[in-house]
């Protein structure tokens, strides 16, 4: 759910790209550039990022990188845009609590085991374009997760009329709060605790 | 609850200070320097902060500022430390829900109406010292808020054995998540909605 890490199962957009830009960039070039930008961000931090550094690291010509991405904000926005077009689907374990626990285990893993997510969150405080793209990435993830809530209503687990977004935010926000803002140590019990509390609240009529 | 803004009701620590550092800094000097650091951060951002700029802005000699605070991290840590030693007490409205709503109204106000809090959160992604100090500030605030939970247990509103911190995080985290990470527009209904959901969950036995 939470990790905006590009995957290799992304759709190949080279055809669209070529139609849009005659003689334009291939998906392989895009992949190299975005991988280089992300690796640079994670290894050396936001301040080290520049078109020049990413061009050199990716082996793609500076002019090409500049023309397509313009600046660091453009690179990070495209990293997040690329991560948004994957085939991720929310878990379907057969219960609201089970689904929320699995989502939270993904969030917890992304925030504790993968430097990409935390680096992109930090970058969102430096670049307005990255902030907007991260917001869009999360909005899309929460939208996909509404299936979890719809199925729980269909099964009669929780009342109809629940605000899916409010429930999903309640079920995930404490993880981000503890791990990103409060910088608490990772706690393997946290995903389940937080998910179970949100499910209990939903069954009791919260988020209505 | 949420705003680490220094207030003028801070205890005067000049006596302690003089005892610790013969001929040392007065509370007035500290106030001028920390006010200058905070104003510079809010108006011109983290990258503009330096000992030199803060010294000039405060009218305090560069050597004094350097000797006492060392660097930007030291300045921000002291801003947050100073904010932590105020007399803030959690609301006592007579009900769990009422108390949590008031806390959340403070958080919402700090995150939407006061640039200080958001600037310090952003700075915490740049400076490890600021991050540690912000964590300490919030830990102290959540500790003070455990009174809210204790009183609710005493009144029989919620079961004994509730984990106060988990309840308080659940009652506030969605606000931070929406306003700081998701960058959603301020929503005046949010403080009450989130507080009410957490109170419902607590009554239903969550956070136990």
UniProtKB/TrEMBL annotation, chains A, B:
Organism: Micromonospora gifhornensis
Residue span, HTH tetR-type domain: 27-87
InterPro entries xrefs: Homeodomain-like_sf (IPR009057), HTH-type_TetR-like_transc_reg (IPR050109), HTH_TetR (IPR001647), Tet_transcr_reg_TetR-rel_C_sf (IPR036271), TetR_C (IPR011075)
Top-level taxon of origin: Bacteria
Region (Disordered): 1-27
Protein name: TetR family transcriptional regulator
Transmembrane spans: none
Transcription among keywords: yes
Sorted UniProt keywords: DNA-binding, Transcription, Transcription regulation
Pfam families: TetR_C_11, TetR_N
DNA-binding region: 50-69
């Amino acid at each position: 759910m939470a990790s905006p890490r590009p995957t290799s199962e992304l759709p190949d957009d080279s055809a669209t790209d070529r139609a849009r830009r005659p003689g334009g960039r291939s998906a392989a070039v895009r992949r190299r550039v975005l991988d280089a930008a992300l690796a640079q961000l994670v290894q050396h931090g936001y301040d080290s990022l520049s078109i020049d550094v990413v061009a050199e690291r990716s082996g793609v010509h500076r002019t090409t990188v500049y023309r397509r991405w313009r600046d660091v904000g453009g690179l990070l926005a495209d990293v997040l845009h690329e991560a948004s077009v994957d085939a991720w689907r929310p878990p379907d374990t057969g219960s609201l609590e089970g689904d929320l626990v699995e989502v939270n285990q993904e969030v917890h893993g992304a925030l504790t085991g993968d430097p990409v997510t935390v680096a992109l969150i930090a970058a969102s405080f430096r670049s307005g374009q990255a902030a907007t793209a991260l917001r869009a990435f999360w909005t899309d993830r929460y939208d996909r997760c509404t299936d979890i809530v719809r199925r729980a209503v269909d099964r009669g687990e929780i009342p109809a009329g629940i605000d899916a977004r409010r429930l999903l935010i309640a079920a995930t926000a404490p993880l981000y709060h503890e791990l990103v803002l409060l910088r608490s140590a990772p706690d393997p019990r946290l995903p389940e605790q937080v998910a179970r509390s949100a499910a209990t609240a939903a069954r009791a009529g919260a988020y209505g």
